[in-house]
Design a protein that fits this description.
Elements (H helix, E strand, L loop, with lengths): L1 E5 L3 H12 L3 E5 L3 H10 L4 E3 L10 E4 L6 H8 L8 E4 L5 H7 L6 E6 L20 E5 L6 H13 L3 E4 L2 H27 L4 H10 L2 H7 L6 H10 L1 H23 L3 H14 L7
Parallel strand pairs: 1-2, 1-4, 2-3, 4-5, 5-6, 7-8
Antiparallel strand pairs: 6-7
Length: 280
């Protein structure tokens, strides 16, 4: 197929590498000419341009811009596309995106590949980034069956595991396992930095090891991405944060009351529950 990618960062660049390896012809569009040149040199795209009209020849277009730019980008892009072109996005929030774009473009289907690294930019693109990773498709009642079928085929070629759900179900689920952890991790780092004894703070920084590295990683990530998660998934994130605060209060009460039996039961419950989310 002829596939377009608008936004040549980590996700867009990695998509291009894998789609080309599957025999697809890939067009890339970026705001910067230098990124276009790098994308061609790295093998992420066959052709690249700063002009959106390059994508008029594509059969499917992936929108891989930052979350806050997806809707305005699509509004500009559709003026250049024939009506049969399938448009999809890779944003980590789906409800506002699907709600805004579906009335504008019949052949739109929301998507979210649950993959990434701490790096960003076209230089961070890598092959097989999506292998064995979840890829969520959020079709609605008005999404054409042909668009769903084409996207399922492409996602299968990427080696991803396909999940179908509504945009609302997606946003509620990712608020727990993606957006809430970013805020909790950020709060952990901020709390540690509030230590008033400078010597103790420095000692803590020197002693920090794998446990702190694991729990602080996502809170030390891209601030723009974290802000966009909160802005576009506000209600679901607030809901999960309030439930998290309730659980923190429970732990505080157990420790204040020296209720070690209840604390151990709570930790036994969390120990047994964690494997239901992740392996290892």
């Amino acid at each position: 197929m002829k596939i377009g990618i608008l936004g040549l960062g980590l996700i867009g660049g990695s998509l291009g590498l894998d789609l080309r390896s599957q025999g697809h012809y890939v067009f890339g569009v970026s705001r910067q000419e230098s990124t276009c040149t790098k994308a061609i040199a790295l093998g992420s795209v066959d052709e690249a341009s700063v002009e959106m009209n390059l994508l008029a020849a594509a059969e499917v277009v992936f929108i891989c811009t930052p979350l806050g730019l997806i809707i305005p980008t699509v509004e500009q892009l559709i003026a250049h596309l024939p009506s049969h072109v399938i448009v999809t996005d890779v944003g980590s929030v789906k409800t506002p995106i699907v709600k805004a774009i579906s009335p504008l473009w019949e052949n739109f289907i929301g998507g979210h590949p649950m993959a990434g690294t701490a790096e960003s930019g076209i230089e961070a693109a890598q092959r097989d980034l999506f292998v064995s990773r979840p890829y969520v498709l959020t079709a609605t009642a008005t999404t054409p069956a042909t668009a769903i079928t084409v996207m399922e085929k492409i996602v299968t070629q990427l080696g991803s595991t396909i999940y179908h759900c509504s945009p609302q179900e997606h946003d509620r689920a990712v608020s727990w396992i993606s957006h809430l952890p970013v805020m909790v991790s950020a709060a952990l780092i901020s709390a540690c930095m509030s230590e008033s004894d400078r010597h103790v703070l420095q000692l803590a920084q020197q002693l920090a090891s794998s446990g702190f590295r694991d729990t602080s990683r996502v809170g030390g990530g891209n601030p723009e991405l974290g802000t966009m998660m909160a802005r576009y998934n506000q209600q679901e994130l607030l809901r999960s944060l309030q439930q998290y605060r309730h659980n923190l209060d429970e732990l505080i009460n157990m420790i204040e009351q020296e209720n070690w039996t209840a604390l151990q039961e709570k930790l036994q419950f969390t120990q047994s529950s964690r494997p239901k989310f992740v392996d290892g």
